[in-house]
Structures are given as C-alpha cells and as structure tokens.
Amino acid sequence: MVSTFPTSHSVDLSQIRLAIRSLQPQLVEWRRHLHQRPELGFKEQLTAQLIAQKLQEWGIEHQTGIAQTGIVATIPSNRPGPVLAIRADMDALPVQEENDVPYRSLHDGLMHACGHDGHTAIALGTAYYLSQHRDDFAGTVKIIFQPAEEGPGGAKPMVEAGVLKNPDVDAIIGLHLWNNLPLGTVGVRSGALMAAVECFDCSILGKGGHGAMPHQTVDSVVVSAQIVNALQTIVARNVDPIDSAVVTVGELHAGTAHNVIAGTARMSGTVRYFNPKFEGYFGKRLEQVIAGVCHSQGASYELDYWHLYPPVINDVKIAELVRSIASEVIESPVGIVPECQTMGGEDMAFFLQAVPGCYFFLGSANPTKDLAYPHHHPRFDFDETALGMGVEIFVRCVEKFCR
C-alpha cells in the first residue's frame, strides 16, 4: 500500500520529452472534463463524443460504436512494420464523489473513482503525439478506447468485434494509474499481475418459524453461518500454499424480526486466483461445501456461479519491453516495483489471451497533496503529473517495438 513507500520523494521529469511536457495542460484539461462527466459501462456517450471529436480534429482514422460505445483509432506510420495496440478504459463507477474540487462530478451518484478518466486522457495524448510524429516509428499503432471495464465487461465484446484484426495486432499494452503506488513508480512483472474474478449468489432454503421454538424449524441463518466458515477451508486446506486464492462472502441477508427464525438466507461473494489451472475448480468445490452443509442440516440451496474475468497474464518479452522503458523514464528513489500484484481483476485479461502483451501499474498517489485515497473511494483522486509520464512510456514503447 501507499503507506509502505516514502511519503515524500523527488520525481525527475527530465526524461519526459519537451513535446509531451508541453501537452501536460491539455492532458489535465481532458482528464478533468471527463472527470466531471462520468458514465457507467456501455453508456459512455459523452466520453466517446469527446474522443471522436479529438481524433477527427487531428485527422486520425477511427471507428466508433464498437461494442456499443467503444472506439478504435488507427495510426499508420510512414514505414511498414509491426502493429502495436494500446488499450484504455473509459467507464466510471456508481459512487457519489466527496472531493471538494472545481472538477468534481456533475453527475449525481457517478464518479471516476478508479482513474479511467486519466487512462483516456493518456491515450488521447499518445494518439495526438504519434499522429504528429509518424516518422519516429514503423508499422501501425491501434488505440482502443474500451467501455465497461468495471462491469459487465467491454474487452471481450471488443475482441469479438475484431478490434485486434485488420490490421492484425502483434502485441498490446495498457496501464492502470495506481494509488497503491506513489508517483514516480511503475509496477510491472511478467506472468500473473491481476487475478481471475468469479462470482456467486446462493440462497439457503430452510424452514422458518418462531424464535422460541427452533425445533420446529430449519434455521437458514445457522446453516449460512456454517457455510461461510466452511468456505474458508477451500483456500486453507484445498489450495497449495504456494498458490494464492481468495474466497470472500461479501453479502449475507436473512430475517425480518428478532423473534422469527428465517426460512431463507441469501449470500453473495467472489473468488479470486492467479493460476489459470484453477478455472472450473472453485465453482465445483464451493458447491460441494454448500451441498454438504445443507444436507447435514436438512436445508436445500439454489446456487448461481459465474466466471467474470480470467487472470491478467503478462507476456515475458512485452513485460521486459515495458520494464526497460519505465526504467528510462521513471527516475525516483523507488522506481520500478517488479513484484507488484493484486487480487483485483481486470478485463484487459481478454486482450492478453488473444495476443501477447503487458498491463502495468503507473504510480499516481501523492500523500503530501492528500492524493492517496484508494480506488473506488468517494475521495479518490490522483497526482496528474502521472498523465505526462504515461504518455512518455506509451510513446517510447511504440518507438522501441515498432522499429
């Protein structure tokens, strides 16, 4: 977390080229414009309009309306070469913003509480710079503005719509502004960076009755309590300690009065893991546990279990490309954080299943400016200095990969 890193440190911006440093005011302006107009997944109409308007102004070929609100910009160079894709997500969250800033959300109950406004601004800045410097790289760059990362997921439908084709993408990169790391750091690693996300809803069906006469009932609360405890043994006793996994029950609802034994209880939760070998395992094991407890208590159950996102797995070569570029751009006492991982999920995973690539974290927290609240917090915000750093890293990746 942020607190484990220095709360004050110098960040050397001398490696960011002048042309990109001169873009910084525009990057901030675009980001704040978007921050004031947050939109949920597949409803990013205003966001898409701004992106399309800018791309048209700059003479960049682009397609709109992909997977409803997605956009793909294509920037060919003046020389033949490989195709590199850059991905940025656009959607916001159903969070009421509590920041007292001039650019706070104008949409009640909605907020860019995860930094996607910054991702979009960085991608726009990258598109503009590359369109003005087509002699500096070979091949083609495709910039993918993706809807609905926060759910239900826009990456998979964009892949299915062919955004990685015509021309065929050789590799893809993307970044996440990351308030778990301070400004002046990059978290990049090969292999698993983020976890698979699976979810479940379960209803426990017992028999209700009077709180003073439990022998006449099957108490769904007691059954649920045993299930919640038993589910924790899946990771503790069924998963190799070398592997990381999480089973969390996040919701449990039952009962209507203090003297009524609830006949029905409902719980919801999530499962996370890094190792792809666990695909299909947790759903079966979770149901075995629930069925066993219910059978022992005379209850029954209804279970809905589904897979949301696979794990984010970075390619070794592309991760090394990003790491080498980041080490050139980021000059601070902390610098590169090679073992940065999180059990959070990301549908960038679907792009990485289709082509080799790398997703990485760009440190954006600055505790000295009170910019260190965690993602999805109603006071989330980040140090906008990271915007220009993101553009520089993307541009250098293009120049090194497409040569």
Keywords for this structure?
alpha/beta, 403 residues, elongated, disordered N terminus, 8-stranded mixed beta sheet, 4-stranded antiparallel beta sheet, 31% helix
Topology:
Layout: H1 18-21, H2 24-35, H3 45-57, E1 61-66, E2 70-76, E3 83-89, H4 116-132, E4 140-146, H5 155-160, E5 171-182, E6 185-187, E7 191-194, E8 196-205, E9 209-210, H6 220-238, E10 245-254, E11 260-261, E12 264-273, H7 281-297, E13 300-309, E14 312-314, H8 316-329, E15 335-337, H9 348-354, E16 357-365, H10 385-401
Parallel strand pairs: 3-4, 3-5, 5-16, 6-15
Antiparallel strand pairs: 1-2, 2-4, 6-16, 7-14, 8-12, 8-13, 9-11, 10-12
Helix pairs in contact: 2-4, 4-10, 6-7, 8-10
Given as residue ranges, the uncertain stretches (5+ residues, pLDDT < 50) are 1-8
Total number of helical segments?
A: 10
Output the structural class.
alpha/beta
Overall spatial form: elongated
Mean pLDDT: 95
Element-level helix/strand string = HHHEEEHEHEEEEEHEEEHEEHEHEH
Across the major sheet, the strand order is 1-2-4-3-5-16-6-15
Radius of gyration: 24 Å
Strand content: 25-35%
Please give the oligomerization state of what you see: single chain
Helix content: 25-40%
- For the termini, the CA-CA separation is 37 Å
Largest sheet geometry: 8 strands, mixed
DSSP E strands, number: 16
What does this structure look like?
- The protein is of the alpha/beta class.
- The longest helix has 19 residues, at 220-238.
- Strand 1 (61-66) and strand 2 (70-76) form a beta hairpin.
- The protein has an eight-stranded mixed sheet with strand order 1-2-4-3-5-16-6-15. A four-stranded antiparallel sheet has the order 10-12-8-13, covered by helices on one side. A two-stranded antiparallel ribbon has the order 7-14.
- It is 31% helix and 26% strand.
- Helix 8 packs across helix 10 (385-401).
